[in-house]
């Protein structure tokens, strides 16, 4: 199989490396064991109860790195990325390189021939892959169909082999994904199940936080699995999309299209992203392409593009909900303008806003007064664990100090106005 430098680089991105908590053989993981993950479930349940008591239609944020071992998330991400890359390779061989990912469609006949030529599956075997996937009637397979084939890997009679790009040899796709990983997958989904059921019972929605890009494919996939179950009638589970990633738009549009096909409600929290330094350092260290947009402006462009796409969906189908988690005034204004143009009223509660407690009150309060659902995000925990989180947010919001000065000036102006009017405490 032919190899492209971009694909080889991408593979490096999902390889375990010393220092990310995802290496094998060293047992000093972020969370020592399954028992620790179960303790985190208890903590999240208390958060859900607290959200329920403090606001109507509340949110609780949960971190999947607290519910699963990081090395499992990295291995699962690696499998998902290899499988997707195999699809892209075959699409390129069918002359579709350079198209938008969702527009790539493999002709089933050619696909079966390629699988037979590569010695991956005979025509009879690959025919079996498509049974029950409603693909028998279709002559093409797109990326979403392709991803759904992976779900049924356990039913495939022999190990699923795919070409290794470096060696050209066939290797098992799931070589590092044995019974233990399958068990961990079930446990993680079970933990999310427990949290989702409590959230529904308490009238709270769950936002699954985004993490570093080498965990993210697994986190997104597990979140989508949970959305399939619990977002049937409304968006209870929200996936987080980091718009500083070059592939953010592909991720949003792919998941949205899946929700349309399967008939569940799409829930998205849009953020700019908070691991830029770490991502760039790791890419340089391991020799793969930087996954982050080159400039802040490009990231804003990506954010607005994703925003617009979800807003259009809300207008046409009303089966999507979104949290605009941003401290950027231009992004908030862009959202308000587009909502007005598309006729999406704040009272529908399909779009809400989120800012950190103590940050950007000059954005939060006017939004709330104008009738928009707006939430203050409250991170809490031991100081040594919360400080790195807050420092990342300060990094992410580089213009924050100017905004803090502006906020202080606005407050001082209001105090003076009230003093002169003689109604300081009204």
Automatic annotation (TrEMBL):
Its main location: mitochondrion. The gene is Prodh. GO terms for biological process: L-proline catabolic process to L-glutamate. Converts proline to delta-1-pyrroline-5-carboxylate. InterPro entries: FAD-linked_oxidoreductase-like, Proline_DH_dom, Proline_oxidase. Its cofactor is FAD. It is an enzyme of class 1 (oxidoreductase). Residues 8-22 have a biased composition (Basic and acidic residues). GO terms for molecular function: FAD binding; proline dehydrogenase activity. It catalyses: L-proline + a quinone = (S)-1-pyrroline-5-carboxylate + a quinol + H(+). One of its GO terms (cellular component) is mitochondrial matrix. Belongs to the proline oxidase family. Residues 111-403 form the Proline dehydrogenase domain. PANTHER family: PROLINE DEHYDROGENASE 1, MITOCHONDRIAL (PTHR13914:SF0), PROLINE OXIDASE (PTHR13914). It is found in: Mitochondrion matrix. Keywords: Acetylation, Coiled coil, FAD, Flavoprotein, Mitochondrion, Oxidoreductase, Proline metabolism, Transit peptide. Residues 101-128 form a coiled coil. Pathway: Amino-acid degradation; L-proline degradation into L-glutamate; L-glutamate from L-proline: step 1/2. This is Proline dehydrogenase. Its EC number is 1.5.5.2. Residues 1-22 are annotated as: Disordered.
